[in-house]
Design a protein that fits this description.
The protein is mainly β. The protein contains four helices and 19 strands.
Length: 326
């Protein structure tokens, strides 16, 4: 019979194996064999399994299943057996916003004295299926002591994507053109549009809708009007630093307007029917000077048939502005 000290030396190497067996799980292989032990780690689709008899072995995860046999697993085993955390879901699309402030100033003296001020503001905000755009501008010109332009405009447009191509929109706009006799002009549009082109570099849309108008001319309330409207817009990134954009809108009302503006700015009330329509075209070419500074060349044309003089019906301008984007 071996001495107690010899017995202890014989049993000591077996203690880790006995402890492991006391807290053992079972690894069932695809061929039906089972191995007692514990899961060490999951790595690249493989299981590292520690067996009291075979030591640490590596088995493909698709060829084996871990069967927990003991409800009280040691902390190491709990951590190892836990299913690998699922890959985090891709981040939700973050709202995108961009604001641009543009200004242009021209002063001339000599044969004639002239001053031109051109201030513009535009902000866009995109969130999920919604795009909000706010625009405002102020134009002022004075030549030889006489004011030739005093115009304030503002607009807010909301577009909501209905699917990949179709969208609905509302557009609220305001105009005050004192020199042309328009004290206040409010318009509210609601329409449906279709994206002809939608890529990372190019977008083109076409749509139609109804527009309600309230116009006050030279302190005379001209009431309300209802127009059918067709709109179109196009934008393209010619190069990483050069953008081109264009917007067109045509409004037509079946009801005539009986109050018109004379060339001197006074009101003329006439009984003849006057076709009530107008159209606008806006285009720009904008180049980046730096990541925040840009230079824009703009062309704007507006035709309103409710003016008496042909020279007053059309209003067009070409401007250049320096912009700051953030």
């Amino acid at each position: 019979m071996p001495a107690p000290s010899a017995l202890r030396r014989l049993c000591l190497p077996l203690l880790p194996l006995l402890a492991l067996a006391a807290h053992a799980d079972t690894l069932q292989l695809a061929n039906g064999d089972r191995l007692q032990g514990r899961l060490v780690a999951r790595e690249a689709g493989s299981l590292r399994w520690e067996s009291p008899i075979l030591g640490v072995v590596t088995v493909r995860e698709s060829q084996a299943t871990v069967l927990p046999d003991s409800p009280t697993l040691p902390p190491q085993a709990n951590t190892a057996v836990a299913t690998a955390p699922a890959a985090p879901a891709g981040p939700a699309a973050k709202p995108r916003s961009k604001t641009t402030i543009e200004s242009g100033l021209s002063l001339q003296s000599g044969r004639s004295d002239r001053a031109d001020i051109n201030l513009r503001f535009e902000s866009t905000y995109e969130h999920r299926r919604n795009t909000f755009r706010t625009q405002a501008k102020y134009l002022y010109s004075k030549a030889d002591g006489a004011v030739t332009t005093d115009r304030t405009e503002a607009a807010f447009r909301w577009r909501r994507e209905l699917d990949h191509r179709w969208f609905g929109q509302t557009n609220t706009s305001y105009l005050s053109a004192k020199v042309k006799g328009i004290d206040h002009n409010f318009e509210q549009n609601i329409g449906l549009g279709y994206r002809l082109i939608k890529t990372e570099r190019t977008q083109a849309s076409l749509g139609a809708g109804l527009t309600g108008q309230y116009r006050q001319i030279a302190d005379v309330d001209t009431g309300h009007g209802l127009f059918g409207e067709v709109f179109q817009d196009f934008a393209i990134k010619l190069t990483p630093r050069l953008d081109f954009g264009e917007d067109f809108a045509l409004l037509y009302s079946p009801s005539s307007r009986g109050i018109r503006i004379r060339p001197d700015g006074t009101v003329q009330v006439i009984d003849d029917t006057v076709a009530n329509y107008k159209h606008t075209l806006k285009a720009f070419l904008r180049g980046k000077l730096t990541e925040t500074l840009s230079l824009a060349l703009r062309y704007e044309y507006e035709f309103d048939n409710t003016y008496v003089s042909d020279s007053e019906k059309a209003d067009q301008r070409i401007t250049t502005t320096l912009g700051y984007t953030f």
